Amino acid sequence: MTEHAASTFGTKQQKRAFLASLVGTTVEWFDFFIYATAASLVFSTIFFPELGSNVGILASFATLGVAFLARPVGAFVFGHLGDRLGRRATLITTLTVMGCATGLIGLLPTWDRIGIWAPVLLTVLRFLQGVAVGGEWGGAVLMSVENAPKTRERFYGSAPQIASPLALVLATVVMYFVARMPNDDLMAWGWRIPFLAGFVLVVIGLIIRLGVEESSEFAEVKEQGAVAKQPVLTVLRTMPGRVLAGVGLQASVIVLFYLITTYMLTMATNIHGFSKSDTLMILLVAATIDLFAMVGVGILCDRLSAMRVFVGGVVFTGLFAFPLFLLFNTGNMGLMIVAFAAALVLGHATTYAVVSSMTADLFPTEVRYSGVALCSAFSGVAWAAPTPLVAAALVPTDGSKHWWPLAAILVVTAVISFVAASSMRGHFTSGSATDDRSPDTRVRVGDAA
Question: Which top-rank group of organisms is this from (predicted)?
Answer without folding.
Answer: Bacteria
